[in-house]
Amino acid sequence: MNEKPSDVALPTVDPVVPAPSGFGEKAKSAYASAKDSAGRAAHAAAAMGRSAGDMMASAATSTGKRIGEAAVLVGDLNNDGKVDHEDARIAVAKAKDLASKTADEAGAFAKEVAKNDMFKDAAAGAAIGARVALPLTHVGSAGGASIGAVAGAVKNIVSPSNKK
I need a surface site. Which of 19, 128, 136, 140 has the fewest CB within 10 A? Predict the structure, then answer.
């Protein structure tokens, strides 16, 4: 997987290309040396690029395996080592049970709230406000209900019916 620089095919650098005309001997020598260095640098870059690519591919494969293992760990509800239709059936049953419990608790809460005098006044105000506001197109029934609910709650705070 990890290749040594010597295992990688050396990029070709055309040795026939002469130094540009007008170069002196030292310049031609420097040009040849630069060409050789460029060839070596290309060779090293190719080796490093392949190594980096191999490392990234290995990391991606490993990450994919880990994610798959985690999905089985989380999704395998019947502990048979795989996520299948039976696990989906179990998940649906758990979701139904949770929804049923939530609905039961919401119903119990609603019954308690309905016993509250302020809630009763706010509900009555909302019903009256919704009906009165129907012909008012800019307010509408939702706006009238909101205004009526606030008015009912304020009425309860100002003059509660259960003063003792």
Answer: 136
